[in-house]
Amino acid sequence: MKSLALTAGTLAVAALVWHAVPSFAETARRVPAPTADLVAPPAAKTETAVFAGGCFWGVQGVFQRVKGVSNAVSGYAGGDAKTARYDEVGSGRTGHAESVRITYDPQQVSYGKLLQIYFSVAHDPTELNRQGPDTGTQYRSTVFAENAEQARIATAYIAQLNQAKTFGKQLATTVEMSKPFYAAEDYHQDYLTLHPSQPYIAINDMPKIDDLKKLFPESYKATPSLVKAAKAG
Q1: Is pLDDT at 136 greater than 80 in this prediction?
Q2: Residue 67 pLDDT exceeds 60
Q3: Of the residues 25, 55, 100, 184, which is catalytic?
Q4: Could you tell me whether strands 181-183 and 69-77 are parallel, antiparallel, or unpaired per DSSP bridges?
Q5: Residue of 63, 44, 55, 51 lying closest to 226 (CA atoms)
Q6: Among candidates 102, 100, 174, 90, which has minimal Cα distance to 136?
Q7: What is the mean pLDDT of residues 18-45?
């Protein structure tokens, strides 16, 4: 992920450089929906899901624009609390992956639909320990299952996509359980919405928002559910 410590002048030069090279944005496709999905109890109003798929700025930006999602928080999962800090996670030695915790209404959007969007537009699940220009285990493709049922659905979906050869090669996505989620620093939250013209965002992540709108029009919402708004509420 690009350094946040960029002056206005540096950003201007970086923009020229980024626009002079090919985009690293992953190719999106609407993959088939999972054949198995979670059935939410009629009274259930709030569930959570945690996905990792490269830089959390773009993943958060995608899910903040999905109908039924009330909050999506950038953070870290896979490692210990003491190393859940941006400067340490960036070393690739903490076990953490940059992740997003999604709070959603299961009466409006299912866990399976979130997984379908995750595999279709949020990242490239065939990349091993990398996404776009970012490399390292902290950028791995991982579903951090909140419980055994989520793990079962995610594992079955990966097998379904592999068997159908949807991507032409095996997925690199793993499923991990019992890994706590730690929210990232405030300056990472809502980063895509606050900095849409930042070169890294414009090149790598804004195309994902366009892909979501194009491939999942029934799930797209124009006004994102922002972390700062949720805190204020």
Answers
A1: yes
A2: yes
A3: 55
A4: antiparallel
A5: 63
A6: 90
A7: 78
Cβ neighbors of 33 (< 8 A, separation 6 or more) are 112, 113, 116
Give 115's contacts (C-beta < 8 A, 6+ positions apart).
Answer: 34, 143, 153, 154, 157
Active site residue 55: yes
At 148, which amino acid appears? A
Is the pLDDT at 145 greater than 80, yes or no? yes
On the 0-12 / 13-18 / 19+ scale of CB atoms within 10 A, 126 is middle
In this prediction the pTM is 0.90
For range 134-146, the mean pLDDT: 98
Q: To the nearest 5 percent, what fractions of the chain are helix, strand and coil?
A: 40, 20, 45
CB contact at 8 A, 203 and 68: no
Q: How confident is the model at residue 230 (pLDDT cuts 50, 70, 90)?
A: confident
Q: Which residues are within 8 A (CB) of 20 and not within 5 positions of it... i.e. 6 or more apart?
A: none
